[in-house]
Design a protein that fits this description.
single chain; alpha+beta; Beta-lactamase; three-stranded antiparallel sheet; 35% helix; globular
Length: 362
């Protein structure tokens, strides 16, 4: 009886001492994160954002700021669905590696193997497309983009739109962020798999990872908990510019929630889609023709925060901005979405990640 009572008392003492400390740390971290976010997202009556911090696959901070729809005066919630822009490239890159693991393509293949009439296609490899080193003209920098921005384009039409443009540099000579390369990758996914890109992503990634609130973007479909996108003018906010999502296609046309993006990150860690070796290809640094290393893998920037390696990527599309940072060594994932392209979550997300390293990454 005495031993049992002593054990009980020790347990109470442990809880009394430790629990308030842990609660205090959590409250302090939450308060500091709130302050970081509110430097940019301070207008509770305007469009805002959703931010999440997770460690070991579980959320430890998740909050929404501002409005999902100004006209209806609806607040954003942690489950709001945002357009994620170029974070789409992660899904495209992993899809390519899935097809490589199935033996249906090789990242060292020249694109002429699949598109025989592509100019200089024998010198441009899938690897070049994945790493933004192809030298292909980025369609977002073409003055004629406005002529197709609202048209329904097939992947082939998109490729034909930019393929005859002069190359910016020879393949492998330079790293220069490039949306055209990822549109080409989406087209190759369709050619090799026999499935439409939208269907491939849903079947082989979203459904497999349980990402039930993630979609190929549409302004016509009824999407539960949709966040509406905005621009800010001198006279106030306006609804986002309308585009056809067939234009950004596999370079920037997906939608998701912060919770679904955590499912994505967890699925990557658990090798749900790829073997360990194949997954490693996405997160490796590569070199240019001259041997110089650059900080991009396949669909992710490979960077660091205070010397600690990170995997990062952001996105920007009319009315929306996004940013995600993953710190593998401490399994911390930080993600931020904004439904006004006047508010960037990029630096805030990195600042939160740096704070998380200091406060909880031990």
């Amino acid at each position: 009886m005495k031993k049992t009572r002593l054990g009980f008392l020790l347990t109470i003492l442990f809880i009394t001492i430790c629990y308030p400390f842990n609660t205090a740390v959590a409250q302090s971290f939450e308060s500091k994160v709130d302050q970081l976010i509110q430097t940019e997202f301070s207008d509770s009556n305007g469009p805002g954002g959703v931010f999440m911090v997770a460690q070991y696959g579980k959320p430890i901070y998740r909050k929404a700021f501002g409005k999902a729809n100004l006209e209806l005066d609806n607040n954003l919630s942690p489950e709001s669905v945002f357009q994620i822009g170029s974070m789409t490239k992660q899904f495209t890159a992993i899809s390519v590696l899935m097809l490589e693991e199935q033996g249906k393509l090789n990242t060292n293949d020249p694109i002429s193997k699949y598109l025989p009439d592509y100019p200089k296609g024998d010198k441009i490899t899938i690897h070049h497309l994945l790493t933004h080193t192809s030298g292909i003209k980025d369609f977002t920098k073409m003055k004629s983009l406005s002529t197709i921005a609202q048209k329904e384009m097939t992947p082939k039409m998109m490729v034909d739109f930019f393929k005859d443009e002069p190359m910016d540099f020879d393949p492998g000579e330079k790293f220069e962020y490039n949306n055209s390369g990822y549109v080409l990758l989406g087209y190759l996914i369709e050619l090799v798999s026999g499935e439409q890109y939208e269907d491939f992503i849903k079947k082989h990634i979203f459904d497999k990872a349980g990402m039930n609130q993630s979609y190929y973007a549409s302004d016509r479909k009824i999407i539960n908990k949709r966040a509406y996108g905005y621009h800010r003018k001198e006279y106030g906010y306006v609804n986002k510019t309308m585009i056809s999502f067939s234009v950004p296609f596999s370079s920037g046309s997906l939608m998701s929630t912060v919770s679904d993006m955590l499912k994505w990150q967890n699925a990557l860690n658990q090798h749900l889609f790829l073997s360990t070796d194949k997954t490693r290809k996405a997160f490796s640094k590569y070199k240019l023709n001259n041997g110089e290393a650059f900080t991009y893998g396949y669909g992710w920037h490979i960077k660091d925060i205070n010397g600690i390696p990170t995997r990062e990527h952001g996105g920007s599309i009319f009315g929306f901005k996004s940013m995600g940072v993953y710190i593998p060594s401490v399994d911390i994932y930080v993600i931020g979405f904004s439904n006004c392209d006047c508010h960037s979550p990029t630096q805030i997300t990195r600042d939160i990640a740096a704070l998380a390293l200091t406060e909880i990454g031990k």
